[in-house]
Specification:
heterodimer; A: seven-stranded mixed β-sheet; 9 helices; about 30% strand; B: alpha+beta; five-stranded mixed β-sheet; 3 helices; globular
Amino acid sequence: MTDAQYDILVVGGGHGGAQAAIALRQRGFDGTLAIVGDEPEMPYERPPLSKEYLAQKREFERILIRPTPFWAERGVDVLLDRRVDAVDPNGRSVATHRGESIGYGRLIWAAGGAPRRLGCDGEDLAGIHSVRSRSDVDAIVADLVTATRVVVVGGGYIGLEAAAVLTGLGKRVTVVEALERVLARVAGEPLSRFYEAEHRARGVDLRLSAQVSGIEGTNGRATAVRLTDGTVIPCELVIVGIGIVPAVDPLIRAGARAGDGVLVDGQCRTTLPDVFAIGDCAAHPNAYAQGEVIRLESVQNAVDQALTLAKAMTGGPDHYRALPTFWSDQYDLRLRTVGLSRGHDATIVRGDPETGSFSVVYLRSGRVIALDCVNAIKDSIQGRALVESQAVVNPTDLADATMPLKQLVTA
Amino acid sequence: MPKVIIVDRAGRDGALEAQEGLSLMENIRNAGYDELLALCGGSCSCATCHVYVNDDWIDEVGVATGDELELLDCSDHRTPGSRLSCQIDIGSRHDGLRVTIAPED
């Protein structure tokens, strides 16, 4: 028994799912189309959650991807508050947690991921939050009324952005990072050391190589974070930013091939017929990772995969080959990243970090594969061509910040 | 509410009642111009909300500076009236403003 039927059904109302629906309509797709999402809100932007929205500098309506009436005007049904628990690839339908069945002609899986959990004692106490959804951040903001001490678990971008905002709000912030430097999974050591110094200079208590053993609580609320070395850090609020687990279980149970995420090809096709996947949950071969199959957690990747897929679905076969870009804003530091630094074997610091404006250039076998640019937007723009061509550039020239990168681009 | 004229990539004129206090990018996007990608949501990072401000409005709206200028400098479609619409905050003084959505880079 099918409660509804759509020619294209999008699972997930984040950047990828929303952009897929927008692009399909823009490209003239005139079949029935719906987005089914597990949150109660219309599609909204996630990056502000750890920045302006947490800082309460931008109200929710301003982070909506489109105004609410837009979706109906475009003939897109948005089915909210429905988690898809199962996919039936033979019957071409999905089942929601409410027990509904929704039929599809083609399925776009853009379900993103769920915040990784600590998996330690006390993790279900009140006052412990992740930063993935509007409701997470609303809960943090509510707790901030009485909280003065905050422990952020995880020194990745989400954790550091949250730490920056909370420090700005006058909270006493401790960041606990399990590895020996922040941003260890995504950036090179010079960038890590720079951000560590900046956070410490602004009063953040940064604990590196520190593992959480449990959360202590009283009357059901978190009161302290306990580390494996026995240290106890008292706090009223805990924010956990230790990555996401891709939300792909229903696809795996339906037989889709998966690794870290659901496997897709260059046209975002899973191994199930007429089932596609995009965004944070899609493990895809990436030209900027030497063709390796990887997942990328970024707005750019979600949007560009959505555009690639919408094009392919409307008769313009396309292969995903977009240049990866990221951004992170902390305090007055605007980081812009181009390319993927994974697999680099050398870094070159361009400019002086002491000035607060510099770039880290990542090389692999002598070729430029990525740049992290802090308050150096010009490098992030001019560096694109270097990454796209995997340019071989004289290291001395790269390190010379007075030499514009565009002059180093060779034909 | 200030009335703003938007010329889309097909060259069609459209008028929108702009909401003050929002950026021009938000106003254009909210009016349903899907060709304005505005990938970064207005954080002056991506240059996908590039518009041309009509000549007679450049003095009022002002020219790009700082990061915005750097971002525009790399566009293949840069003109003297180029602005990133996320960096223009709409106020009553913009009544009658006319902008054209720049081609995709």
